Amino acid sequence: MTTRRDSMVFWLGVIVFLAAVAAMTQIVRNEYPFFAGYVILQFIALAVAWSILGGYAGYVNFGTNAFFGVGVYTAVALFKAFGAPLAVQIAAAAVVGMLLGLALGLLTLRMRGIFFSIATIALAIIIETSVMNWRFVGGAAGIQLQRPAVMPPFDSYVKMLCFVQALLVVIAVGTARYIQNSRIGRGLQALRDDELAAECTGVPTLRLKLLACVISGALISAAGAPAAMYLQYADPSSAFNLNYSVSVLAMSLIGGTAHWIGPVLGAIVLGVTQQLLAVTISSEVNVLVLGIMLVLFVVGAPKGIIGLLLPRYRLRAGGKP
Amino acid sequence: MFSMDLLLGAIVLGVLLGCFYAAVSVGLSVSFGLLDVPHVAHPAFLVVASYGVFFLNDRYDIDPLLAGLMITPLFFLVGLVAYRIYYETFERRGSDAAVRGIAFFFGVAFIIEVLIILQFGVDQRSVTASYIGKAWQFGEMRIPIRQLVAFAVALGLTILLAVYLSRTFTGRAIRAVAQDEEALRLMGANPVRIKQFAFGIATAVLGIAGALLIVVAPVEPTLDRAYIGRTFCVVVMAGLGSITGTLAAAIILGVAETVVLTVFGASWAPAVSFAMLLGVLAVRPQGLFGR
After folding, report:
1. Any residues with CB less than 8 A from the CB of A16 and at least 6 apart, and which?
2. CB B25 within 8 A of CB B235
3. Alpha carbon of B180: minimum distance to chain A alpha carbons (Å)
């Protein structure tokens, strides 16, 4: 349970974090740290958003790439049609992600476990195929995008994107933290442990599951939207790449999903490792390291990094028969 | 343009393709359908088998089907070990084993993909054999012999497994363990050993199936992603664990894919299996032929 002091510390931390990112954009000249920082921040937002459904509710979503790609292509379509500004792109992506989450939730009402996971992969492939056949946004060949002029006080677009992504991280973490400490979070935990028992004791499992799908979907799509402007290019096979799904899954599970800090830690650890590996070795080795770490943690440390660090969570894990 | 002949040709090719899909799915029908293992890495194992066949064919000029048969015992052992690991780390511990089991196999599939890329590169690979590249002409219709070979072997493999599971003692034991594990334990049998053996069989079948995969078309390291949809579509549509259902469902999928390919073009084909899977899961999760 959180006290008022916990909350004050949290929001103070948020303000310090945002101020630090903002200060960096003004002081640091070199653009490279922002290129790398954007990717890490993006993965933090994605992992936190994923764990609302995948961690708290225990529904393993393999379709992160569906929501991510939908976010990217919402941004692309709006930008191409109306030249919509970045904020509008992100807001629209969140709405579309919300609707997609609702559709996923309704479609998978009766599914659990592996069936749900497979259904999310299916959804991703179907949407990817549809986008491939959508001429307006470039079809399978992809589309080139010209960034608009950057808004002051920023002096480069990438720096601005980095700050925007930091805002999205704050929104995702704030939402996850709120859910975790509210009735919603406890209800989700109950349905994760035993859906039938939860239903019997009066937990509105159906509503909670839909809510988790909607919130998680909206946040993932929103975090994906700026990627269009970041890359200045979008094509279906990279926007809907299954690597996003496995990365986000790995980051969340490696960090631990019992607390919102878990996915944040996982995303930072893996994100930084990936940035270093991508620069020094190759992107294949990158995915290999990711996969091996995922398997090792799933087998050896089921509660993730937070399970190893915080004895409170370890105790809870060991308490079950 | 669109014609009856074209449609008929698509259906014939679809049936051939469908039997091939049955062969690649039948292992999953045992491991996932009967044993309840969330084996997302099944298609990745399949692609590994194809690369094994490619290696033997490329290096020693061994016929792909024979090569498939040669790696089958190895795959049986891999299956035994894989199930043991899965059982010890997930099934025995219970609670949230399902969530972690899925993540585990997903991770394994990705590791396999990358290892193949590191070893063989991202290019497409194919095998050579006397029956690859030729075709039979029936009036308007042209059927590649490689498709016919794959069809015949796949059909034989599927029927063999169906007979094994329904006629032999061990086969029946496998079905018994799927129906009621506790009862088996009470009868003094060890359900875990039976399941381990069954998982071994399910993986061994992939040796041949992988050979068929590379006979039908060239393979690439990330091919398993498309086959996640196809194999799970077949197994779920069949009704979990039904081998005859697997054959019927695979033929339905094969025909649906070739018809969509002919009518709407190749760009829509990847979504067919996933759309059917989603439809079956949403409307009739027990499968078309399930109880």
Report:
1. none
2. yes
3. 20
Domain count, chain A: 1
**Separation between Cα atoms, residue B207 and residue B55, nearest integer Å:** 13
Residue A159 domain-assigned?
yes
Name the pairing type of β-strands B135-138 and B141-144: antiparallel
By the 8 A CB rule, do A303 and A256 touch?
Answer: yes
DSSP notation for A28-57: ---SHHHHHHHHHHHHHHHHHHHHIIIIIS
Identify residues of A whose CB sits under 8 angstroms from chain B CBs.
54, 58, 60, 62, 107-108, 110-115, 117-119, 121-123, 125-126, 129-130, 132-133, 140, 192-193, 242, 246, 249-250, 253, 284-285, 287-288, 290-292, 294-295, 298-299, 302, 320
Cβ atoms within 10 Å of A115's Cβ, excluding its own: 17
Residue A298 lies in a domain: no
Quote the radius of gyration of chain B (alpha carbons, Å): 19
Question: DSSP assignment of A189-200, as one string?
Answer: HHHHH-HHHHHH
DSSP helix/strand/coil, A242: helix
- Angstroms from A297 CA to nearest CA on chain B: 9
Q: Rounded to whole angstroms, what are the CA distances from A291 to A262, B108, B226?
A: 18, 7, 19
Q: Is residue A121 part of a domain?
A: yes
Q: For chains A and B, what is the number of CB pairs under 8 angstroms?
A: 118
Domains of chain B by start residue, with CATH: 4-283 (1.10.3470)
CA atoms within 13 A on the CB side of A10: 16
pLDDT in tens, B176-207: 888 888 888 888 888 888 999 999 999 999 99
The predicted-structure confidence for A4-32, as pLDDT tens digits, reads as follows 788 888 899 889 999 888 888 888 888 88
Residue A297 lies in a domain: no
